[in-house]
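>> received
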Amino acid sequence: MLTPNRQTRMSFHSELYNLIPTDHRLRRVNEVADFSFIYELVADSYCKFYGRPANEPEILFRLLFLQILYNLSDERVVQEAQVNLAYKWFLGLNPEDTLPDASQLSRFRNHRLGASQVDAVLNSIVKQCVDKGLIKSQALLVDSTHTTACCQKQKPLHVLHDAAKRLFRSVVKRYPKLEKRLPQQPKIEKDQVDAEKTMLHYLADLGETIESLLPDHEGAISEKLRIAKQIIDDERLLAFKGIKSAIDPDARFGWKSNTKSFFGYKQHMAMTEEEIITAIEVTGGNEDDGKQLPKLLAHSLHLGIEPKEVLGDTAYSGQDNLSDLKSKGIQAVIPLHPIVHNGSVKQEGFQYNKDADFVLCPSGEHSIRKAIQGSKKSGQSRSLVFYFDVEKCRVCPLKDGCYNSEAKSKTFSVRIVADQYKQHMDFEATVLFKERSKRRCIIEHKNAELKRHHGLVRAKYRGLLRTRIQALLTAFVVNVKRMVKLIEKNGSQPQVG
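>> returned
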């Protein structure tokens, strides 16, 4: 049951708070940022009339703020706040007051905020920046960074084995009498040729049996069944290119460069020149950066940000992005790459990776070389052709409709139509474009701040939704830090909200 906010009574021991320096970071944060929005945001997730009185949402949210600000775990932030005067003052508690149990932070983060409400947390701080007049620039910077998953990648057989084991155990733990009615895991020999297919069939059989025995399943069993179905439906799994973890099936394999890869997620971010983050999209590590630009732009516009230009790298130079920006009257300060000059795409499911400079096919294999076909003097469109390893294509489970077994090569071609981009190419040659392009690098510093100082280098939780919550809360903390610096730089006093 959620009770109205209470006014903390200052006890005799509150005199100790006078020892906190007036220029302490948390004092400045408390003056600048308004945290009261959280009460109204999560009010509907509490029962109004029944149950035990809940801890105040603002106290829990401020604990989450401290956790990310100082890069602490749930347990550690509660331990530190219990003995740190500045922390406890920031929470609005008396020195002798006790703190909520650390487990409540997880429940508040995942169930009170959740993926549906956490967007509003970032929206709130951006609107506060707008209301205080801190955002004056008319440029939006976009970029992405990667976050490694909090689990190790696995081979298909291990993924299937772990998924089956976790599902089996979750059922037996709650319904011990059903153990003998569940199909038993097959014995896999060390060098068994069809080991993966055998385990895949067993996992499917196990899932169907559980659903028939427990049609009203819920909780951990439902979650394990969802993961099992996701693994079974992944066509790329047996090709060693799909799901790589039974613990975190949303994590994906991505590329940082032609030789460096990672396993996890991507954070796609939009930011103003004042370094206020206005939008974040979280995807698997294999997603294309350029496809996230419309979402980032729409979210920023919704918050009252009115950019006249968008600064990004070549990943955002797709035809659709440039046309969309032009239709909105926004100048694209984005360098073109030959790959964006496509007049026609021959096959669906192929994606170009700008960092690694190759094309990924639907099964996850990348091209091994490229070449440009056509004459420069003819005036006709030329093609950028990417070649794949045909030996891998011959055994690919997705070759139907993609590769002819009798073909000697497998290619993917993109037309280079420079005339369509003549106006943008002329703009690229100007001094203005070159000068404005230099401003894009400040978003790289913001990515470094998120990862090095606030733990976004590695996901703290499993799954896309929880990683998204982590990213958005981290952006909230970083925005508050920036608010303090901007107000101190401007020499203005924060407005009391």
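>> The radius of gyration is 27 Å.
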